[in-house]
Amino acid sequence: MAKGYNDPAMEKKFQDRYYHAADNPEFTKEVERIGRTMAHMCYQCGTCTGSCPSAPRSSYRIRKFVRRAVMGLEREALTDPDLWLCTTCYSCTDRCPRGIAPTDIIMAMRNLAFKWDIVPRNFLKTIQLIYTTGHGVPNNDVNRAARVKLGLDAEPETTHKYPEFLPGIQKIMDHYKMKENADRILSEGEH
Amino acid sequence: MHNGMHEYAFFLGCIAPNRYPGCEAAAIKTSRNVGIELLPLKGASCCPAPGAFGAVDLSVWYAMAARNIILAEEMGKDIALICNGCYKSIYEVNERLKEHDDLRDQVNEVLAEVDMEFKGTIDVYHLAELYYDPKICGVEKIRESVVRPLDGTKIAVHYGCHLLKPIKERRFTDAENPMWIEELVDALGAESVQYRNKMQCCGAGGGVRGFDLAHSLDITNEKLINVTEAGADAITEVCPFCQLQYDRGQIEIKEKFGIEWNIPVLHYNELLGLAQGMSPQELALDLHGIDCKPFLDKIL
């Protein structure tokens, strides 16, 4: 299968943005601030890529992303779909001889990509579910029946049973306009 | 301690209560048999998912995890949980907010809007580490609680990533070749088996399962090859998301790649439940995608 997002709305954005701009030194600082790790200490040994379970089955190279972070190659980093192939297993972070957390560099880049409206739909749907139910994986009827058979209440002792806690959660997410942005980006792909 | 029991606020997460309720039921019952009482943590939400949610905005991830922690602070109880994803969110955010003033101030500023404040008064534990800790339970007490030894079974242990990694931010000492869950498995009368690349990820995390299922399953498939080569009758783990990936994942692997494994996948609490005499019905093993019967036939 060809490399891509398989999402026409997102591909269209890249027609304007893909590989068009030069480096942005602020990008390095932003990645280091959000990821709370010193990307610029990297000497490109490749231990990270060698430890990565995603590397052998894709073109995703964590070392390349760390280099992009250091070089300030913002657009190249944030538009590459490989950004979303990190399983966050943290093997690279444990093994990095420079004490960098490459996994958190990826997480920081994903956060920055969201600010550019670049984020796969499954992430946005998880946000909507948490906003409306409190759970990324909510309860369903088959499960409710199984819970009752086990002697548990149909709804767990969470926001499911106590929905009065939901407004607090929604207020926290609204503070960051997270749901609003997720809704907007998702709706762009629907027409 | 209350009535001789170590009490914890039980943080449920999503996948255990909403997909594998047997894990939740088993955790409550099995822990009670070894002196641990899990109390309801009312109004908790998704941890929230460190990969799928944290990838979008880490600031919100900190604030939402802190809200869950504060619910336990208000109870005055430490948290116990049974999922590695929850462990990363709840344990790590708790430790980071205790340590870094800038993060704590940032989070508390937002939480003030909902009349909450992170104080840093509790600790967070995975139930598996409480089982292993001799001050709370310990391997011997687990062994003594067994009424139906899992004799003659070979079990491959999957630790999962976020329980142990990043190791610098954990209280464990070894993430390259740990053996303590094997000790907990062997205490049930089963034989734990070692297999190639034991510490490799299950493939589910970081939102990859939702973003590129085939890629994620290919990682799982590699693990299944290695587990099968070692002759395991079942896989055990301490994370319902890893469980989902191995269990439902085997069905998806069959559909997508035409490869059939049929390896039962049981959370350590389900395994412990069986060893303590709970029936497969009490553990809702019928909700598993992969039939546990070949494994159950060996022990029942």
From TrEMBL, chain A:
<dbReference type="InterPro" id="IPR009051">
    <property type="entry name" value="Helical_ferredxn"/>
</dbReference>
<dbReference type="InterPro" id="IPR017896">
    <property type="entry name" value="4Fe4S_Fe-S-bd"/>
</dbReference>
<dbReference type="Pfam" id="PF13183">
    <property type="entry name" value="Fer4_8"/>
</dbReference>
<dbReference type="GO" id="GO:0051539">
    <property type="term" value="F:4 iron, 4 sulfur cluster binding"/>
</dbReference>
<keyword id="KW-0411">Iron-sulfur</keyword>
<dbReference type="GO" id="GO:0015948">
    <property type="term" value="P:methanogenesis"/>
</dbReference>
<dbReference type="GO" id="GO:0046872">
    <property type="term" value="F:metal ion binding"/>
</dbReference>
<dbReference type="InterPro" id="IPR051460">
    <property type="entry name" value="HdrC_iron-sulfur_subunit"/>
</dbReference>
<dbReference type="GO" id="GO:0051912">
    <property type="term" value="F:CoB--CoM heterodisulfide reductase activity"/>
</dbReference>
<feature type="domain" description="4Fe-4S ferredoxin-type">
    <location>
        <begin position="75"/>
        <end position="106"/>
    </location>
</feature>
<dbReference type="InterPro" id="IPR017680">
    <property type="entry name" value="CoB/CoM_hetero-S_Rdtase_csu"/>
</dbReference>
<keyword id="KW-0004">4Fe-4S</keyword>
<keyword id="KW-0408">Iron</keyword>
<dbReference type="InterPro" id="IPR017900">
    <property type="entry name" value="4Fe4S_Fe_S_CS"/>
</dbReference>
<comment type="pathway">
    <text>Cofactor metabolism; coenzyme M-coenzyme B heterodisulfide reduction; coenzyme B and coenzyme M from coenzyme M-coenzyme B heterodisulfide: step 1/1.</text>
</comment>
<keyword id="KW-0479">Metal-binding</keyword>
<dbReference type="GO" id="GO:0005886">
    <property type="term" value="C:plasma membrane"/>
</dbReference>
<comment type="similarity">
    <text>Belongs to the HdrC family.</text>
</comment>
<protein>
    <submittedName>
        <fullName>CoB/CoM heterodisulfide reductase, subunit C</fullName>
    </submittedName>
</protein>
<keyword id="KW-0484">Methanogenesis</keyword>
<keyword id="KW-0560">Oxidoreductase</keyword>
From TrEMBL, chain B:
<keyword id="KW-0408">Iron</keyword>
<keyword id="KW-0479">Metal-binding</keyword>
<comment type="pathway">
    <text>Cofactor metabolism; coenzyme M-coenzyme B heterodisulfide reduction; coenzyme B and coenzyme M from coenzyme M-coenzyme B heterodisulfide: step 1/1.</text>
</comment>
<comment type="similarity">
    <text>Belongs to the HdrB family.</text>
</comment>
<keyword id="KW-0004">4Fe-4S</keyword>
<keyword id="KW-0411">Iron-sulfur</keyword>
<dbReference type="Pfam" id="PF02754">
    <property type="entry name" value="CCG"/>
</dbReference>
<keyword id="KW-0560">Oxidoreductase</keyword>
<keyword id="KW-0484">Methanogenesis</keyword>
<dbReference type="InterPro" id="IPR017678">
    <property type="entry name" value="CoB/CoM_hetero-S_Rdtase_bsu"/>
</dbReference>
<dbReference type="InterPro" id="IPR051278">
    <property type="entry name" value="HdrB/HdrD_reductase"/>
</dbReference>
<feature type="domain" description="Cysteine-rich">
    <location>
        <begin position="155"/>
        <end position="245"/>
    </location>
</feature>
<feature type="domain" description="Cysteine-rich">
    <location>
        <begin position="8"/>
        <end position="89"/>
    </location>
</feature>
<dbReference type="GO" id="GO:0015948">
    <property type="term" value="P:methanogenesis"/>
</dbReference>
<dbReference type="GO" id="GO:0051539">
    <property type="term" value="F:4 iron, 4 sulfur cluster binding"/>
</dbReference>
<protein>
    <submittedName>
        <fullName>CoB/CoM heterodisulfide reductase, subunit B</fullName>
    </submittedName>
</protein>
<dbReference type="InterPro" id="IPR004017">
    <property type="entry name" value="Cys_rich_dom"/>
</dbReference>
<dbReference type="GO" id="GO:0051912">
    <property type="term" value="F:CoB--CoM heterodisulfide reductase activity"/>
</dbReference>
